[in-house]
Structure formats: C-alpha cells, structure tokens
C-alpha cells in the first residue's frame, strides 16, 4: 500500500510538472525572423499564430504612448476582413501617398502638405497631428467617433545611433499591419487577446539614423486597441518621436535634425522599388 501511495504521488507530481511546463511554453510569444515580408506574403498571417502563444506584457515599461497620424480614424471600413487589402492612404491622398511610401522619410515629409481626403461617410478630411493613447485601455482606438468598423493609422520615428537588429512587440485588435522604411514587416489578422498582450516578437532591421514606422490596425467590433513596444536595448539607445510634441508643427520641429535627406537619385530608386513591390 505504501508503494502504491508513493507511485500515485510520483505520477501526480510528474503530471503537474508536464502541465506546468506546457503552460510555461504556451505563455511565451513566438519569434518572427527573416523579414521583411515577401511580395506573396504581405497579407498572410504568421505561422504559428494560435492562442497558446499569448504573452501578457502589462508590466513592460516601454509601451509607446505618442503617435503621429491622421486626427481621426477611417470609418465604416466594412469590417477588418474587407478593409485589410485596401490602401486607405492611397485613397485619401489621391495617389500622392501609399502605405509603404508613408513609412519613409520622404513620405512622412509629404504629410506637411497632403491631408487625407476620405469620403464623408469614411471620416471626411483628416489632418495630421500628434495624439496620445493609453496602452492599458482596451479601446484606445476609439477617438471621438464610431467605435466599430474603423481603421487607425499611427506613425513613429525611431532614431537609431547605428544599424542594428531590433525586436518589436505589437498588441492589436484586430488586423495589424506594420511597415518600416518602405517595407512591410508584420501582418496579422488575429487579435492578440489583450491591450498589452502579444502573440509575436518581430525582429526588424533599423538603419543608422531615422527609421519611419507606420502601424495600421483595422477593427470590426468589441475592444479596439493599437499598441507597440521594442526591446529594452532599442528603447535605451534610440530616440523615439513624437516625444514632447503635441501637434504637427511641433512634431516636425522635434525631428528637424533627425530626418535624413535622401539624394534625388536615390529617392527615384526607392520609389521604383516600392512600386514594384506593391
């Protein structure tokens, strides 16, 4: 009988260790490497992409709170499944900007003179400004307008002292897309499960100097959040803008000494590459 009890206890302990180990593995988000996304994968979800990858990072101190972008959302998007393949930046600018182009220094500079002229039912005219979001708020995309069927665009400039690998961790509800320096690095139609919960850590390339990031999230119903942070080293060694600015004018004053000026010939090559990849 004693041996039976010992065996039962041993089995119970072993089972608990297996369950604990399994839960520990499932509590860690999956790493994505090898980007940017190739032309055929621009709207494909990461693999794996299941619930077991979710990782709560509410204790992380690096969540970004300030963004530069349109002063309101794109409204009545028809649901994120329908809106995700559409380029609302191209639509709103009459072709002067696209989503990839907006994620470059030249595209960012064009926002000084090019507003979003969406149809009245989609939000109408949107000017560019700095806005602040609470990363702990599960509905931080809801900015003085409809709370369902919306798309939010936010931008940041990351000034890196050297070319390096960095890791970004996005939280979103629902469909997220992220471009950096004209290339798409992340696409995921699956909500992450919480305003500060992530499914994936994404390794990206930062060049020395200014790196422009465009983050878009399309929402259908329920919670609506758009959040992002980078690894500790990136936040420690780089400067991320907007910082102290509160509107478009002060934002460009803030980044005046940071944005790189590209030679005209190089700009032509960049736009040609972007057009080929669209």
Strand and helix order: HEEEEHHHHEEEEEEEEEEEHEHH
Helix tally? 8
> How many structural domains in the coordinates?
1
Helix/sheet category: alpha+beta
Termini separation: 72 Å
Radius of gyration: 21 Å
Please estimate the helix content.
25-40%
Average pLDDT value? 88
Secondary structure blueprint with pairings:
Layout: H1 2-26, E1 30-32, E2 55-56, E3 66-70, E4 74-75, H2 80-83, H3 88-93, H4 99-102, H5 105-110, E5 116-117, E6 125-126, E7 128-132, E8 150-160, E9 164-173, E10 175-180, E11 183-188, E12 197-198, E13 200-206, E14 209-219, E15 225-230, H6 232-237, E16 239-241, H7 248-254, H8 264-277
Parallel strand pairs: 1-13
Antiparallel strand pairs: 2-12, 3-7, 4-8, 5-6, 8-14, 8-16, 9-13, 9-15, 10-11, 10-14
Description:
Helix content is 26%, strand content 30%. The chain is an alpha+beta fold. The protein has one domain (31-277). Strands 4, 8, 10, 11, 14 and 16 form a six-stranded antiparallel sheet that branches. A four-stranded mixed sheet has the order 1-13-9-15. The protein has a two-stranded antiparallel sheet with strand order 2-12. The longest helix has 25 residues, at 2-26. The N and C termini lie far apart (72 Å).
